[in-house]
User: Fold these one by one.
Assistant:
Number 1:
Amino acid sequence: MNKIGLLIALVLIGAGNGACQSEGDKVAQAENDSGAKLTDVQSQKDKEVQEQIRQYVEETPNLYRITWKVCGDWNAPYNNGTRCNETKIPRTKGYFQPVYVWGADRVQFLNKQDFVSNFWTTGLFVKSRGCLNLGKPREEGLYNVKNFMLKKTGTTPTPENVKVEVLSKQEKQTVVELAFKDAEVENYALTKFGVSATTGLIPTGKTCLTVDEWKKTQS
């Protein structure tokens, strides 16, 4: 018996109103009533959330999917003699998730010194209004969506390594709904356990940084 059902049952039993129902019947009825009420409350909450998401989709700019393939990245898994950082939908082992941004315009790669002296931390930036995971769109600017660890003797990636796709209204709705659910799970994991539900690790900092913010962070 759940706690809410138990509480209601105790109130009904303690009332002793002289009805013909047995105490067992009262308990069963209380559980049924509480279950129905909880279902109604959850259903109403789901409807309210769906309406909020619908309004959010209507009122925000176009949403873009950013995918890439950058080889020579020492942060990527070693596979068939090379290390390629590549997105895939749906994501499978050895691949990475795409990033979603508001109002994408163009992409750009920037280098800064990595903690290993002969490597760059190469950042992929998108001129946009920020990332979906930040919530509301921000002012237009260059936002960092991914970092790669590349040898200085190698070649810096170019925009040809990146694909920028605008989502249809239906795709946008689906992506926003999934992001909302993921955020709920992530928030629960961080609140209860202090770790990310995605990586199982303690979060190390902000994401979707501006160029100035990115330059100031340690690689």
Note: The longest helix spans residues 23-59.
Number 2:
Amino acid sequence: MEQSNLIKKELAQALHAHIILLKDIDTIDHDSEEALRFIFRSLGFMLERIPEALVSDNEEDLYFAAFQYYNLLVELKSNLALSYPHLSIDLHNFPDSHVAILNDWWEKKTGLKVDEPTKQTMSIHS
């Protein structure tokens, strides 16, 4: 249960980081509109399960929401670096301390190995 509480605290921090990001955007220049739409859509997918997971006692829902959040955060950072290198939005305030725990949970649950560099679950774990 202690581990679940730590994960819940970190997911609450992720929601807070999202709120701060929204508050800190003063203006949007025309050249950044597409990138910002991409970021906010991605954040929506990343964070959509978190509110329910935070108030639920279902540990599996919490772990799945956290697993989804962590892996989509890595994907977002990678996509931003590749597709929008000119954009200076700092996503380092989004926490990611429990990635190893959640990847291990996923591998035990599904039998699929999470490939660390790509975060893809394509290989079968024996």
Note: The first strand starts at residue 112 and ends at 113.
